[in-house]
# Entry
Amino acid sequence: MSTTSMNAAPITVEDWLATRRVNVFQIFTTVLCGLAVFLDGISTQIIGYTAPAIHNALHLDHQQMGTIFSTGLLGLLIGGFSCSVLADLYGRRRMLIACTIIFGIFTVATGMATSPSEMLAWRFIAGLGLGGAMPTAITLTAEIAPARARSVMVMSMFCGFPAGGAIAGVLVSSILPCYGWEAVFYTAGAVSLIVALALIMWLPESLVFLVNRNADAARIEQAKQRISPLSDIVEFTRDEKRSSTPVAGLFQEGRAPGTLILWVIYFISLLEIYFLASWLPTVLNSDGRSLANAALGTSLMQFGGVAGTFVFGRFMDRLNPHRVLMACYLLGCFFIGSIGFLYKSSIILPTLFLGGMFLIGAQSGLSAVSSVFYPTSARATGVGWNLGVGRIGSICGPMVGALLLSKNFSVQSMFIWIAVPMFIAAIFSMVLQYVRPKNS
# Structure
């Protein structure tokens, strides 16, 4: 227990936040986390947008490009597993800053690659930082938000990722024709390092984390005053018993079934997203569109994801979040499956927008659900391991695309096959509400 006054009645940080209005400091922290995730989205997805140019410059075949995609995503997987545990042990602030620096430096290095082996190495190391940034940012945002506004704040922060993916398309279409694919990576990496500097200067540590880790009372009081400068002196107490290890907390107190279900849904979501991010520009480019137009068309999915994130965040705070998720996955299944039939049509652009709206909107909603499923001592680990298992899907997504293309599947058949798992995700989204712990 950490205290600021022995005269005040003990209260958890969660209960204290419930009595406070959302203020500028909490919004500013959410924006900082969103900026890190925004650069995460750019750095993760520019490899897909620049793939045709890299393919030609380094003389690679489809299988080699698929390996490069998947190697970067392997780094994301390992980073998600390891950095999230470190965030639960050593702090959300430290890990988010470290991850942003790592993916900034090695995104720049990717632009310097002159061979497939260098490309593989730099994308893998960049992936370590990219994989750790997302769960840490989600956790910090969830812990600084009151419960009544948590879904909106987490999903608003998360929309930085699809926004980054959308801007990546604009970035590629603007820079690549004039300066080459290398300049795209230089720009994204440099901006990431600038954002890392902003995080060092202004990003706070989670008050919940400080209290549950028995931090110095003066440090806790300072963190409390940043959230509510004029609040009364209070005594904070932990909001739960700490599990033996962060990983053990994923399966204790009845969380095991829900954790396994979340893993399945995350696997499906990220398989879908990274299949589309990796191969949709190539599919659109194969219809005779320029690389710039294919990138812009793909970016519409990310813009749709931003729109869906804002819209569905409010629904999830007011309605049953599991039903909202189910509806998003069902509608996403329909629109993603339609791409194969409409990719030559004039209505492909609104189809891409709506597909991204429901698919990426569902993914951001899933992150909001995940962030409150676990206790504080295992929250970053829970979110990170969900994303980490999901990264297995993200590794499979590009490989599935490469396999289907190499087997000469028609575009229609390819998108029908890739849409089916979203129906399964819809069913599991509803099942999740019946197996969640009572206190989540």
Q: What stands out?
A: The chain has one domain: 10-432.
